[in-house]
């Protein structure tokens, strides 16, 4: 978001809905109101912020929450020293950041990671180091299909399946063209899952894979039309999605198809960027609570951001997920013995043992557990782009895809079902 | 233009080749579908051509291949968008955007390019990457990652061509490309400044001895190129996407179009750009080739260059 | 030069290189923290790749903007083999290097027809192509099939058995880098290096010095591709996986730009390039600087260095003084028949026939008369009809470098010497293609240097020579070994009268030195009158006189065509 106008938008977005009505202080950690003074606990986080995108809002909100905790008694009197590295979308820098945090700085935990590629590069490193990473803003499959990463967000798979499930159930869509980037662990991975869902429910889906190097999205649009689908799923980063939707607008295709998109389009600047043409026509998945939700955690997130984050830090889904990871992490530490909170092995064991934290930000329970895959957040909302904003059209619902069967099995074992 | 045998032969060969490629890619597809993709491709090709033309205009007059051309365009597009967000009268925002590209181009042309005059052409070209990094860094700093859209009023006007709706913006790209070629060609041919530009491109030192005001002529070339960069940037921002990095690196396929004209012949740049767009789009029809279709500009540029260099020997060739 | 003398030569730069290599190999891996171990490892990988383009540009005068793309090829092969086979790392490394080398050979083909910016742009197009291919097919991550891609990455690349830990791997990579730099250094100091030096100066000069231009260009690109492959494969071993964003076309341009900034003719320049490419951004990132601002600083630095340090930062650091230890150590005629040369519609030589059989024969005529064209035709640089024969050898049937091997030598109006070589090596280049023992070549070079009086300055760099000394080196190149025909193109141009006198004595002595036939072009009529027994006069491509010199200079047609205009 533009540095020059962001604060204004934020004030308008939240102020108009009365979200700032509650002037009470944010709730953080032990809430003592006294600054922590003990020996700092080192916690690491890695984000990716450079062209082509900014994935830093999850570490921004985690940092804000930790500041709030430090101002409110810390962890048994000890403040959290949050060390954030930027991978700049560069796999080498991602590896270097992990080396620095895990080895040189010897952090006790990794919280709030938000990156497009860091998880793919470092999944093995985390496993070797027995570090259970509480990530927040994941895009790649490795984040959800490895033993030592657990995220509060859904990534493209859950988010796409979610919106398609809604559209299949409510709008009766039969065939889907899944337009995505030709990146195996992002686009292919999530479109395959959409195809799996549609086939299990008597429909079909085809992938239209866009080469990230291609400047021209018109041909991709034409290719999607050629599949004969009745629904277009725009499984792309917001910038590229806007370009594809613009190409569709150029051909006036709006009413010929139904339009869906994952959480990437659940961003306050999207409706304005898309314009009036698309008003009321694009269904978007929201993987955490809608920004305007009145729930305690959502309201507390806003207060933490207002009190402890920079004014120009974005207030988006990744900001919510970063806040959530940080909050669950602090809860875990506070339950531990005061002597153990500086011990990496014990902290990570405690994280692995997390079983069923709840928050109004998330539809389901948050858990970790020992497994080769972690996907706690697989239920969400669907919103519709409407009047320059988003209307919630379906509240919390769980995704029925067969992909999540193994996860349901684990949840039964953990007693969460 | 004198039509000698070699040109006729090349033109024939080109027509045969392009027909063959279209026939192979479109084999078994209904004519309507081919038409659809062909029109879409020509629309993209016009963008490549417009970029390539701007590069060649500057290169011919100054010997600098400006890799920062795309970055200057990106700055123009972002600036115009920002002014639009502030509610400024739309045509004024376009003028301001183009003016920014003009200023950037002149700043490099007057401030930095003369200091690199002693370097070989390759290093002069590579140095402009430094300018591209500075401009791109600045643009990304002021406008951090977000969803934006830049639209021109001409987007809403359109006509149906072979089943595809083509907006007036896309027609503007094609018509501008053709108009620029005609105007620049006749300017170089007819006017005194044009003659001086050709002279400088031919031999800078000799031109200086002849009393040609090199600085003034080069400044003019950088100015024209800056205006074109700004204009192209606005159209890229509208038709491709309003992302500075994407617009900046559009310069690489634009260089491919420029190579098709051997960095000299603007008509060939235009034909090259359109051919690239056409073939790239038609490759979508082939299940085998569609994943690698962005490779088209590069393959065509290499083939065109090798064809034009056929039979040349390097023994006493000057540094090019 | 004796390969052993590479080791015995102890310039400041070489000593610094030892120190650098030693510190890198022994000390660095054991003192760096985990983060900096990673950073230095990837920096070293890029230094290897930078070395490949640096010598290509600095030594051979050719630009490749595909180097990072070729690294991607090497990395792709490494990943594919590591996931798909159980071959040890070293085998994969070599196969990856050979694969990238193959692409290097393909890339060298345009260089036979193109140079400078055009060649650079063709290589840029190749880089663009690689970028698209990597983005389309991605890097293997353990999947099946040829492309080996699946939706989730399995374990990373297997590392060499002797270098499993990060610090051991850094040492391994530095070891590879040292070998890579030595590979270039050996090539540079031996025959290919001298051939490249000639090539970068002028292809005409290279051909007339018996250099097989085609083979040496291909060899240069081959080496460069090999190093890129090694670098890419080692990079894959460092991170464990690769991402297409690392190998964009823009990265190749940037790496090349940094090589120019670092100094392409110095080994240290490659290190500086890699440090700027990887360590500087890592530092700025580590300091928490906004990456966009880092871009700006980077761009400013790039422009500043290109403007203020034209020969690179390394040249300002090193004052390179290689102290090379130099080792101590039949009458022909030529007949041309019906020679015709046309440039488009212009007739440059019109049915010229002549026999040159005196020791020194002069060729005079006004500018544009076809004098240099005649020499170029005899050298084989331009197409002609008619024949040029010497004894039983039909020169017109030989390629330029074959003519040179046969014993045809020539000097150029602007002497074509290699600035980066010393006098001894400049002369030695001429004999590189000869199938004789090195010791004999050195002896011949020393004899030629003694002939021109430069025997005491063999180690001097050509860059440090004055105009007259350069002419003498050029002359030494003409007389070294066993020349049969020597073509001198305006050897006295721009000389003082004293120098011309010295030169005249040397030319007259050539016959006694090596019994070659000398053809001399010069505007200095006094010189021609002094040294040439016979003289041929050309005007508008036609022979208008050919007789003993004194007689020719009195011919009214000659006076009108040539001498008249010379007295303006």
Based on secondary structure, the structural category of chain C is alpha/beta
Contiguous low-pLDDT stretches of chain A (5 residues minimum) are 1-22
Distance between the amino and carboxyl termini of chain C: 50 Å
The radius of gyration of chain A is 21 Å
Strand order in space, largest sheet of chain C: 6-7-8-3-9-10
Q: What is the assembly state of the chains in this entry? A: heterotrimer
In terms of DSSP E residues, the strand content of chain C is: 5-15%
| Structural shape of chain C | elongated
CATH class of the largest domain in chain A: Alpha Beta
**Overall average residue pLDDT of chain A:** 88
Description:
The complex is a heterotrimer of chains A (417), B (320) and C (568). Chain A is of the alpha/beta class and 417 residues long. Chain A has two domains: 6-154 and 293-377, Response regulator (Rossmann fold), CATH 3.40.50.2300; 156-286 and 381-413, Rossmann fold. Chain A has a seven-stranded mixed β-sheet, sandwiched between helices. Chain A has a three-stranded parallel β-sheet with strand order 4-1-5. A two-stranded antiparallel sheet of chain A has the order 2-3. Chain A is globular. Chain A has helices at 6-15, 57-70, 91-104, 118-128, 155-171, 184-200, 218-226, 238-250, 270-274, 296-308, 317-335, 344-352, 405-413; strands at 41-47, 49-50, 53-54, 80-86, 109-110, 114-115, 133-135, 137-138, 149-151, 175-181, 204-210, 231-235, 258-261, 282-286, 355-357, 366-367, 379-386, 389-398. Chain B has a single domain (32-306), classed as ABC transporter involved in vitamin B12 uptake, BtuC (Orthogonal Bundle), CATH 1.10.3470. In chain B, helix 2 (31-62) crosses helix 7. Chain C is α/β, with parallel strands linked by helices. Chain C has helices spanning 4-8, 12-31, 34-58, 67-84, 89-108, 116-137, 166-189, 191-201, 203-208, 213-239, 249-262, 267-286, 291-308, 313-317, 371-379, 400-406, 423-428, 438-452, 467-479, 497-514, 525-531, 549-552, 556-566, and strands at residues 334-343, 346-356, 360-364, 385-390, 393-394, 408-410, 485-489, 517-521, 534-539, 542-548. Chain C is elongated and about 90 Å long. Residues 1-10, 320-329 and 563-568 of chain C have low confidence and may be disordered. Chains in contact: A-B, A-C, B-C. At the B-C interface, helix 5, helix 11 and helix 13 of B face helix 6, helix 9, helix 11 and helix 13 of C.
């Amino acid at each position: 978001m533009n540095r020059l106008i962001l604060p204004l938008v934020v004030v308008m977005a939240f102020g108009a809905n009365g979200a700032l009505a509650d002037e009470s202080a944010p709730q953080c950690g032990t809430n003592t109101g006294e600054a922590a003074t003990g020996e700092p606990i080192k916690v690491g986080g890695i984000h990716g912020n450079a062209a082509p995108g900014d994935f830093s809002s999850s570490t921004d909100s985690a940092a804000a929450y930790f500041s709030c905790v430090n101002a409110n008694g810390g962890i048994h009197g000890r403040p959290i020293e949050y060390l954030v590295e930027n991978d700049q979308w560069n796999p080498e820098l991602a590896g270097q950041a992990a080396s620095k945090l895990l080895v040189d700085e010897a952090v006790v935990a990794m919280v709030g990671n938000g990156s497009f590629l860091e998880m793919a590069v470092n999944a093995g490193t985390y496993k070797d180091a027995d570090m259970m990473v509480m990530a927040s803003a994941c895009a790649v499959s490795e984040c959800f299909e490895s033993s030592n990463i657990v995220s509060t967000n859904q990534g493209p798979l859950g988010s796409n399946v979610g919106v398609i499930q809604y559209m299949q159930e409510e709008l009766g869509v039969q065939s889907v063209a899944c337009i995505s980037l030709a990146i195996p662990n992002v686009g292919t991975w999530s479109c395959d899952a959409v195809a799996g869902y549609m086939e299990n429910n008597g429909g079909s889906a085809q992938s239209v894979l866009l080469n990230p190097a291609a400047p021209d999205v018109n041909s991709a649009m034409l290719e999607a039309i050629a599949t004969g689908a009745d629904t277009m799923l725009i499984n792309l980063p917001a910038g590229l999605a806007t370009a594809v939707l613009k190409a569709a607008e150029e051909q006036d295709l709006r009413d010929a198809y139904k339009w869906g998109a994952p959480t990437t389009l659940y961003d306050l600047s999207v409706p304005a960027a898309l314009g009036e043409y698309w008003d009321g026509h694009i269904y978007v998945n929201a993987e955490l609570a809608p920004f305007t939700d009145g729930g305690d955690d959502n309201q507390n997130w806003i207060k933490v951001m207002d009190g402890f984050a920079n004014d120009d830090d974005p207030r988006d889904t990744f900001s919510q997920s970063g806040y959530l990871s940080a909050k669950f992490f602090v809860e875990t530490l506070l339950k531990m013995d005061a002597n153990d909170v500086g011990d990496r092995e014990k902290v990570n064991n405690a994280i692995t043992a997390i079983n069923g934290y709840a928050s109004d930000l998330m539809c389901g329970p948050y858990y970790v557990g020992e497994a080769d895959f972690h996907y706690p957040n697989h239920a969400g909302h669907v919103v519709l782009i409407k009047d320059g904003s988003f209307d919630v059209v379906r509240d919390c619902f769980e995704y029925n895809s067969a992909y999540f069967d193994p996860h349901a099995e684990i949840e039964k074992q953990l007693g969460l079902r | 233009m004198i039509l000698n045998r070699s040109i006729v032969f090349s033109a024939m060969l080109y027509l045969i080749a392009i027909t063959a490629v279209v026939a192979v890619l479109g084999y078994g597809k209904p004519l309507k579908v081919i038409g659809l993709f062909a029109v879409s491709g020509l629309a993209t090709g016009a963008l490549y051509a417009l970029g390539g033309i701007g590069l060649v205009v500057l290169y011919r007059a100054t010997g600098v291949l400006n890799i920062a051309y795309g970055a200057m365009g990106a700055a123009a597009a972002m600036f115009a968008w920002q002014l639009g967000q502030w509610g400024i009268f739309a045509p004024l925002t376009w003028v301001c955007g183009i003016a920014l590209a003009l200023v950037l181009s002149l700043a490099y042309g007057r401030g930095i390019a003369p200091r690199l005059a002693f370097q070989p052409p390759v290093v002069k070209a590579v140095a402009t990457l430094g300018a591209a990094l500075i401009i791109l860094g600045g643009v990304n700093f002021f406008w951090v990652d977000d969803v934006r859209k830049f639209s021109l009023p001409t987007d809403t006007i359109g006509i149906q061509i072979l089943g595809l709706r083509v907006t007036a913006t896309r027609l503007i790209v094609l018509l501008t490309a053709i108009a620029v070629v005609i105007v620049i060609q006749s300017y170089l041919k007819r006017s005194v400044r044009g003659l001086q530009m050709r002279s400088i491109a031919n031999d800078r030192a000799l031109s200086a001895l002849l009393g040609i005001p090199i600085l003034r002529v080069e400044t003019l070339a950088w100015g024209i190129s800056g205006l074109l960069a700004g204009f192209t940037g606005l159209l890229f921002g509208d038709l491709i996407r309003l992302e500075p990095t994407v617009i900046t690196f559009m310069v690489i396929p634009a260089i491919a179009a420029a190579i098709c004209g051997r960095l000299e012949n603007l008509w060939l740049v235009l034909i090259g750009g359109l051919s690239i767009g056409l073939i790239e789009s038609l490759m979508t029809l082939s299940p085998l080739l569609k994943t690698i279709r962005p490779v088209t500009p590069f393959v065509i540029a290499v083939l065109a260059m090798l064809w034009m260099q056929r039979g040349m020997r390097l023994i006493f060739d000057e540094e090019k | 030069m004796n390969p052993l003398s590479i080791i015995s030569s102890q310039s400041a730069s070489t000593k610094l290189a030892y120190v650098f290599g030693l510190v890198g190999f022994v000390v660095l891996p054991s003192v760096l923290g985990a983060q900096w171990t990673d950073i230095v490892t990837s920096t070293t990988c890029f230094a290897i790749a930078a070395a490949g383009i640096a010598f290509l540009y600095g030594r051979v005068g050719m630009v490749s903007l595909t180097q990072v793309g070729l690294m991607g090829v090497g990395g792709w092969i490494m990943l594919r083999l590591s996931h798909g086979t159980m071959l040890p790392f070293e085998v994969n490394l070599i196969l990856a290097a050979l694969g990238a080398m193959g692409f290097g050979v393909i890339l060298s083909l345009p260089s036979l027809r193109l140079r400078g910016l055009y060649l650079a742009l063709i290589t840029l197009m190749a880089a663009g192509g690689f970028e698209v291919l990597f983005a389309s097919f991605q890097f293997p991550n353990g999947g099946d099939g040829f492309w080996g891609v699946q939706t989730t990455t399995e374990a990373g690349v297997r590392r060499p058995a002797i270098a499993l830990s990060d610090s051991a791997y850094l040492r391994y990579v530095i070891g590879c880098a040292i070998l890579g730099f030595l590979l270039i250094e050996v090539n540079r100091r031996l025959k290919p290096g001298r051939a490249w030096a000639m090539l970068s100066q002028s292809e005409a000069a290279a051909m007339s010095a018996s250099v097989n231009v085609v083979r040496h260009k291909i060899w240069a690109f081959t080496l460069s591709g090999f190093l890129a492959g090694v670098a890419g494969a080692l990079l894959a071993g460092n991170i464990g996986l690769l991402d297409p964003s690392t190998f964009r076309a823009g990265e190749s341009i940037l790496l090349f730009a940094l090589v120019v900034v670092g100094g392409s003719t110095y080994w240290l320049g490659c290190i500086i390039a890699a440090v700027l490419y990887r360590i500087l951004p890592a530092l700025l990132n580590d300091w928490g600087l906004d990456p966009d601002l880092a871009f700006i600083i980077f761009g400013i630095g790039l422009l500043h260095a290109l403007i203020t340090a034209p020969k690179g930062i390394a040249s300002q650091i090193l004052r390179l003084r290689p102290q090379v230890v130099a080792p101590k150590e039949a009458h022909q005629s030529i007949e041309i028949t019906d020679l015709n040369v046309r440039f488009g519609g212009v007739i440059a030589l019109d049915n010229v026939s002549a026999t040159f059989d005196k020791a020194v024969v002069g060729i005079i005529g006004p500018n544009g008369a076809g004098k240099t064209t005649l020499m170029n035709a005899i050298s084989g640089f331009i197409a002609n009809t008619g024949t040029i024969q010497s004894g039983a050898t039909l020169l017109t049937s030989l390629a330029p470098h074959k003519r040179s091997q046969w014993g045809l030598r020539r000097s150029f109006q602007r002497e074509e010497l290699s600035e980066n070589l010393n006098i001894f090596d400049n002369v030695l280049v001429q004999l590189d293609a000869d199938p004789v023992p090195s010791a004999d070549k050195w002896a011949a070079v020393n004899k030629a240097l003694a002939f021109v009086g430069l025997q005491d300055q063999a180690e001097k760099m050509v860059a440090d020579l004055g105009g007259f000394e350069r002419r003498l080196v050029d002359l030494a190149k003409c007389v070294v070994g066993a020349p049969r025909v020597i073509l001198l193109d305006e050897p006295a141009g721009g000389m003082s009268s004293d120098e011309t006198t010295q030169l005249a004595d040397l030319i007259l002595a050539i016959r006694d030195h090596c019994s070659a036939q000398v053809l001399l072009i010069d505007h200095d009529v006094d010189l021609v009158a002094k040294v040439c027994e016979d003289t041929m006069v050309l005007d508008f491509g036609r022979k208008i006189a050919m007789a003993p010199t004194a007689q020719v200079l009195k011919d009214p047609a000659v006076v009108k065509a040539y001498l008249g205009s010379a007295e303006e």
